[in-house]
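User: I'm curious whether this sequence folds into something compact or stays loose and floppy. Could you predict its structure so I can see for myself?
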Amino acid sequence: MPPGTPGVSTRKKLPEHDPENHEIKHMRQIQHMSWSEIARQLNEKRVQNGRAATLTEAAVYGRFVRNGKRIAEATGEDFNPSDYMHLKHPKPAAKSARSAEATPKFSEEMDELLVRAVDVTRKRFWKHVADELQVTGGTYYSEAVLQKRFNTI
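Assistant: Here's the prediction. I'll summarize afterward.
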């Protein structure tokens, strides 16, 4: 069929079958590499293979967030891209003791949001521990089992 035929995809590979996407996910989650280091290493490999070194930090980050979930689903892992998305902090909430600026006051509403944020984090904590242990150790344990075991060691 000629290119551009309706109903026929021109994409060569699905993102979850692209080895470069798997490398990005592995380098970030397992090797804890920075986005710039991942881009640098993958660009070196691309040049060695006669391809253009076009990856930037933003491109690598975007591919990780966009394709990580699809890769995880294909390999039976749990992956939430929002766990890895950048949280923007336009200005710090508190300055150092030497700074002339004071720490902003907490309102009752902000106190409630803080309590909720801590509660949500606590609820997700053992899920993250279970996921990390499965990735690093290769065995899945339930959250309750891990919490009980941790409290005994």
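Summary: Residues 11-87 form one domain. Helices lie at 19-29, 35-48, 57-75, 108-137, 143-152.
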